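Subject: Interface between my chains keeps coming out wrong

I've been trying for a while to get a sensible model of this assembly. When I model each chain on its own everything looks fine, but I need the whole thing in one frame so I can look at the contacts. Pasting all components below, labels as-is. Any help appreciated, I'm running out of ideas.
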Amino acid sequence: MPKLMIDDRKIEVAPGVKVIAAAEQAGIVIPRFCYHPALGSVGACRLCAVKFLDGPVRGLQMSCMVEARDGMVISSTDDEAVDFRRFVIELLMRNHPHDCPVCDEGGYCLLQDETIAGGHAMRRSMGKKRTHRDQYIGELVQHEMNRCIQCYRCQRFYQDYCGYRDFGVMGSASRVYFGRYADGALENPFSGNLIDICPTGVLTDKPARFKGRRWDFQRAPSICIHCSLGCSITVNARYRELVRVEARRNDDINGHFICDRGRYGFAFANHPDRPRQARINGRDTSYEEAIQTTTQRLSEIARTLGPDSIACLSSSRAGVETQMSLKFLTRSQGWRQPGCFVDRSEQNSVTAAVGRLTPERVVSLGEIEKADLILVIGVDPILEAPMLALAMRQAQRAGAGIIILNPQPVSVPFAYDHRPISPDDLCSTLQKWTRSISSQTRTESHFVEKHEEYRGPETPSVPCPLPPVDSLLQNSRRPMIVCGTNIVGTAIIHAAADLARDIHSDCRFPGLFYVLPGPNAFGAAFASAGGKSFSDILPDIETGNIKALILVEADPIFQFPDQERVKNAVKQLDLLVVLDYVPSRSVGFAGQSLAEMVSPAPLHVVIPTLTHFETQASFINQEGRLQQTTPVHVNGLPMSQLTGGKHPPRKFRSDVPGAGARAAWQVLSELEAVLSSTPADSITFADIWYRIGLAWNISVENRTEIPGNLRILSTTVESEPMTEHYRDD
Amino acid sequence: MIPDDLKETLQRQIAATDHPREQVMDVVFILQDRFGYLSDPLLEEVAALVGMTPLEVEEIATFYEFIYRKPVGRHVIHVCDGVVCWMLEYQSVLDYLRSKLGIDYGQTTDDGRFTLLPTCCLGYCDRAPAMMIDRKIYGRLTPERIDEILGKLR
Amino acid sequence: MQILFQNRQPDRIASLEEYRNSGGYEALTLALKKYTRAEVQQLALDAVLLGRGGAGFPAGRKWMTVAESAPFPRYMVCNADEMEPGTFKDRVLIHTDPHQIIEGMIIVGYSVLAEKGIVFIRTSYENAARIMEQEIVRAKEAGFLGKNILGSGFSMEIAVHRSAGRYICGENTAQMRAIEGKRANPTQPPPYATEKGIWGLPTVTHNVETLACIPHILRHGPEWFKSLAATPTAAGTKLYCVSGRVNRPGCFELPMGTRLSEIIEDHAGGMQEGYQFKACLPGGASTRFLPKSFYDIEMDFDAMKQAGHRLGTGSIIVFDHKTCLVAATLNMIEFFARESCGWCTPCREGLPYIREILSRIESGEGCNDDIPQLRRMCRYLCNTYCALAPGAVSPVESLLTYFEDDVQEHIRQRKCPFK
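Reply #2:
Try treating it as a single job with all components included. I did that and got this:
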């Protein structure tokens, strides 16, 4: 472990660490443009110059290009280093357009920060500035090349890190140009990260263009809910409108980046048709009346038809608090246990996967990058968990082999070993490998070396003969098994877990990684334990055994394949309550005026809820990691929708327009309180977590702030036995 | 755009190498010699031939000096502006060419015969001043010699 | 003593027969049949064969860095991308006696077991490229290339790769990227080219002149090679190019360490009538100006280094007293600014900035602040990613060191005093 001194601070770092990273560990941030922890060192910008005063290296050197070694004495504040950095800034600013007033990077701009920090303020050059023509690179990223300082971060990210080949660097000398061959949308599903990594305003957020400065925004750390990975994001809002999302560094999960779906998929929160007012039979009403009417009818149905005639359904996108509040409600009233899945097989798959994750075998997305062999079963990464594809690419760049078992090839940005196995044979093949591995002892071979021959983005296909998967698994040091839950059945999910369990006994790292359908599918598995999926309760609705249905951030009217059947069934209900924050089909159905409906007149109630941007909400990602969001702003009608894009009204009012919604768990807690005749106004977030803690037998010290590294696994928390509902599959 | 027989020749040539990408320059030169310059459709065909994306070919085409991405005349005159030629009558050679052809750097004569471009030291300093036309070098240039050289190029 | 030029004839290329008659390909037979690969490497090392491309790295040591366990195929690259302004020795050598280069390549190839030979040649040397292609075919027909060369079990093929044109392609690592069909940006070790070069495989690159020396070293021995030089620490002969305002510009093979004055006066025919020697660049445009006070300097790696200069390619560009050195420097900076690969900031942005200031001074719009600003830039442009910018500022820095008065005069007179 090299020991060295940087700016009079003694530090000890791991071998191979560059001086710039070593300094950062000691809390010294050396200025940089081209260096990025995820993209590595390339020595292009020359801004990270420091002075080596003593030790094996001497003089002015780039801290990103020199490995930290024993005995180094380094100064980042040495006069020559400071003056050299000022010189580099002066050179970079020579051609910069100085258009900061109209540049969206303001507040995010590393170039501004380094320019001021570096002490450069006067442009001495009298020459003309270089100009470029910008390109149309799609609706997500804005391109303004004149601001470029040629750090090559974009090209390195796009081509090397992501493996896409339609954006790069053209020209030479002082005319290098970063862009595409021709105008057109970027093909990379991670292209939005260009905005985060560009140190100046060349690549900026196009949908957020001119919507405000960083310091105008309300900002909060949050979690992406577009797939089960639960990537960390930072959310920006202004005037009650969500404006932009950025990647938030989380080395356990997403590293520095997020996918474009996560970055740009927030329009639902600003949706003009978003439910903002409670409705009863298509008529706007107060929240209080909605609660009162609902509880009255629920009591009536329970009294007359029995508690078993009331069914509740939540979803895998609802937060833990909401899912569990629904569970507490049903329990307190003796109703049927709530479900969280529309489809029975999905519930079975998720339950199976959650049941098989153990602390020894579960791995985070961040650990996927460290695998030396990844076996992918029944999952299309770009589609189901985009950042998984990026993590696998990093593993592959570091030498890992990737085997994808799929009937058809999948589209991923890295070379892989495709084993087309028909769905019918998949399970038996996995079982065969497990048996062969269990019966054999480990033999020495060199998997990694063998695979080096065919990696690299230029070689999408695999030329050399394919070695048997079981021996590859057996001889790898850090094998990981990635398994989907969407198209494969429970048998394969179990077979994958068995394989992970039985990979040779001396393997230190048999990782198991499931991809689940939804940001809180994991929580849904707990919450729906003992409950049934929508497809299982539908016959009871059709036969009239169920007369009241409460949908909590669930949309079976859209999700169930036979929509006509669902609609006809739902029409027979006495009471349909829909809690949601999006204008879903179910909200639309329940929000219609009843004139259009068949008699006898049922009661339809819509109660608007809050998104995870407006309330604290917890989600458990596919590896069991419990994460919480922080509200970024109060819910309400966005200013742009209130005024039609004009100036905000010049009169004051005491309430926020369109702010009638409450968190779903609050609504459910209130329903429970009213039905149980207990006081409702005292129920807090902490109260909910107290109850969840009791239910799961976990101790959460600070019940409003749960640590990001808490894993909730079926083997570590107590929950009701989760059984899979095998019936006809 | 590329005739089938030429395409087959190129495909054979590419197939003979371990890394198709290695052949990209050679293919571009062959096509440029035939078609004058690397037009967008040609560039896209090159990309397909060597298994690169058009962007990847463009990254290279715009990096190197002797790949023409814009139309040029039948003969491209590269006048050496290296320091030795500069010392030894480069300016008068250039002035003579400019007035004789009626074009400046970066332009093509109206009859499409000549394009005039500068180039760095050609490595014929012992025969300065020099120029290169169609990858052939002409040294010890004088107005008379330039007349004679250009006269032979149609 | 003509070694590399032993078969030099006016306007003729030595044929394979002529080369063989003068002892050609005997060294290859020796290498393959008499010496072990380690002995071949040791001979080059003992002969103090320093790279003739400009850097002066010991050739034998380069081969030794190719590990025995290194993967195959390995590459042997002949760097004929001679783009240093004022330099044309490689062109002359190929046009004189190409087979000694081919033989040199095969011997190096054998010593590191490189089966793939590539001659990387600049665009403007199309003639030389054709000569090499033609002579490679003849060498193959004679059994010196191809499978199982001279029954040794060693096989090698050589291909000619034409550059699409960029000065930076002459840089070893950039050249490897160019061969791969990529943008020619240099890369910094580690890994070294001899570990991971072209397509990640071991690659040994040598300049044309270096390769041409190798057969002679093998045939006559290291001691003989060292004795060819004019100075005790140097070895071999050197191809000196002379261009500029001299009577007989050309390429001359002379003992390494021959005095500058002797090269100019005796071989290049002295200054043209009416012109006096003012300065020269001793090794192409990326070396420092040598003023008259260095007129008798011994032109070898050591002597030049001791004097604070660089031998570079040994290509002497002679400037006379009527030529404005500010304008000459501006011309060279223009060249370097144009040829920067665009990778790192000081080179990409700094060279155009120097061009801006020099051009202002030359046109009479310079100011006194310009000189310290230029000095600062020359100092800082030495902290670049590769050696292009440090070379590029050599003329500027030495202009300010030896001819500051000329620069001052431009500023004082508000015009170029040479016009």
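Reply #3:
Confirming on my end. Chain C has three domains: 16-227, 237-320, 325-413.
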